[in-house]
Each structure stands twice: as C-alpha cells, then as structure tokens.
C-alpha cells in the first residue's frame, strides 16, 4: 500500500497540467453569477433548495444544480480534484465534482459522474453517483477525524477506459477508492465515446429546510484546491 501511494504521488507530480488560461468556464443553473476559474482560488456556491443532479427514471432527468464547468477533449482528460466543505445538515445536502459526457442529440440522456459529500442518515458521507442510462448511488463513511463542517478531497482519474473515484486522505499522502466506472471512456459502449466532456464543481440541495420561513434557505458549499490535469 505504501509503495502504491508513493508511486501515485510521483506520477501526479510529473503529470502535465493544461494552462489555466486555456479553460473557458461556464455556469449552468446559476443565473446572474459571473463564471470564474476555480483554479488557484476558493469558490463558494450559494445553492438553493429543490436542486439536484439525478436520473432515477428516463422520465425524471434532473440536472438543476448550480454547476461551474469547462469543456475538455475526452482523449486529453487525465484527472480532476477538489476539496469541498459546507454546513451539511439537511437530507441530501451535497457538493463536489461532476464529470459529464454530453449527448448532443438528447441532453436528457447525458451520462455523468458526480462525487463528493452528501448528507444522509443524519451525517455527512462520501457519495458517488454514476449515471449511464439511470443513476445509481453509493455511500462510504468519512473516516478521518474532523472538527467543524465535514470536508473531503475528491479525485476523479482516468485509467484506460475506466474512471476511478477516490477520496484523498492523510494530508494528501494516501487515497481510498470509492468507485470504478467502467463505461466512462469505453469506445465499445453502445452509446459511443463522447468527444468532449464537461468537468467542474457543483452543489445541490434536494430537500427544503424545515421550520417556518426557512423553506427557501440556501446552503453555502465551498471549494478549494481545484486541479484539472490533461495530457
């Protein structure tokens, strides 16, 4: 395990990163807010309720969460990483990374991976959703001791035709696998390989706050240490 972690760190330090000026950033579902690059700065998204990224049925495609993203050639994507935190307290409060594989002919069939923190069963957890045709969801515990709002560093990395989702722990020295997504870059998949992918950060709040006068309260989801690597 130690050798694997050291090899990963060395590989990461040797990876080429695209120039920050080469990425053009866009907002989806965040009207009136100017898009800025998250590279080299901290960003907080004010997330309204009744928002999500989730497709439990073909007739229920929900991509309403504020999403700050850039577009990169799929063949050049290597990895994306960010640290996310927030005052998680209401069922399904969430935020983290999103990688989408756009379907230009039918946006409601766009495939996506989202990964980050999600509040469930009274506690924040590490959540991953992979959506090929329909969404499936997994949760893993946050194992590192923390004070204050829960935070996590999430990494999505390409490995051949797969995308692997990790949580980075031990002050950046180790990583723990959360999910393997085998369809992500698979050219043999019936839907074909997306030529371009969209990569970025998001926050979502599917559940309204309880209590009189609080139904429309937002959650402030904060991000730092964003890194996007291409080859």
Automatic annotation (TrEMBL):
The keyword Signal applies. The keyword Kinase does not apply. Residues 1-18 form the signal peptide. Keywords: Signal. It holds the Pfam family DUF1349. This is Uncharacterized protein.
